[in-house]
Amino acid sequence: MDEDQSSGSREGTSPTSENSRNDNAGLWSRIRRALGGGRSDETLRESLEGVLDRHAEEEGPAAFRADAKSMMLNLIEFSDLRLDDVMVPRAEIIAVDAASSVSELLDCFLEAGHSRLPIYHDTLDEPLGMVHIKDFLEWLNSKDKRTKVKPSTRKSVPILSLSSGDLKTPVSELGIMRELLYVPPSMPAADLLVKMQSTHRHMAIVVDEYGGTDGLATIEDLVEEIVGDIADEHDEQDELITRASATSWLAEARLEIEDAEDTLGVKLLPADEQEEADTLGGLIFHMLGRVPVRGELVKHDSGIEFEIIAADPRRVRRVAIHTKPRTARPAAGAAKPAAKASEESIPQVKS
Predict the structure, then answer these.
(1) pLDDT tens across 294-318, in order?
(2) Terminal CA-CA length for the chain
(3) What residues does each domain of the chain span?
(4) Which CATH number applies to 85-151+159-227?
(5) Over 21-41, what HEC string results?
(6) Is 3.30.465.10 the CATH number for 241-322?
(7) Interval 236-249: pLDDT, tens
(8) Is residue 320 classed exposed, middle or buried when 0-12, 13-18 and 19+ CB atoms within 10 A define those classes?
């Protein structure tokens, strides 16, 4: 029966029985009521979160676990995400030129730790397809079986004994390239997830209005927006921000601004500028209007300072964050004070 009908009063139904029915309603019925009849100034997420909190108070240990609640709330936010919110930006794409050799492709798979690698011709703006590690291993195995090995020496032969000619074969000639999806950055992330399920293609190139490569999205990127980070046995736990001293932090430039704000307890980007940057590196670029150089100090309105530890001509890579202004460095030729330990000192990091 429709929930709107079941929640209304009927002839012959006492107030007591109606209250009892409401008290015994299941969680799903409560969610439907909250989402259908919540106050106009409440967001969908706030309505659902309120229902789940009340359910947890009433049910105790039998209620939803925290991770299940988080996934339900993430699912609501996921419906509003576009691909430019979740894609891997162009600068961070790991791809292989079609002219590269089998040996170079193998090295790239080992270094990247990915199961799929996009293949391009000359530049990322000319993607050709992608290679799956399973297809590549099957090709290596088929080539290895063609190698003639004498029985007396078989035990000393490596698992893969490819000829030098096989190792020099261009990726474009392997015959194992699979098709990619090509999608615009404005496409809803949920739509791409459905398209990947129906086409069985788990990698998409995000193209801009001029047909150039803007980013890359995989099915794992989309699912992680709902269930959180998915790490396997080979993923290294990469800490994007670590404390260096009582008043200093070391952070990767790709650290999300929201995560930096939570760690530092400082608002880094005003609400009216939320669309200007997503990462710490993007924030610094937005503040300066250019890519800073290594060693440069960038002061934020909150009073903290960003010290550029590693950067290249295109982007910032690593940043030191000082929650207290650092003492000005002495000018060239000035007498240097005796060195002493300071809690504001930052360890030297090689770029």
Answers:
(1) 899 999 988 899 999 988 777 888 9
(2) 65
(3) 3-78, 85-151+159-227, 241-322
(4) 3.10.580.10
(5) HHHCCCHHHHHHHHHHHCCCC
(6) yes
(7) 556 788 998 888 99
(8) buried
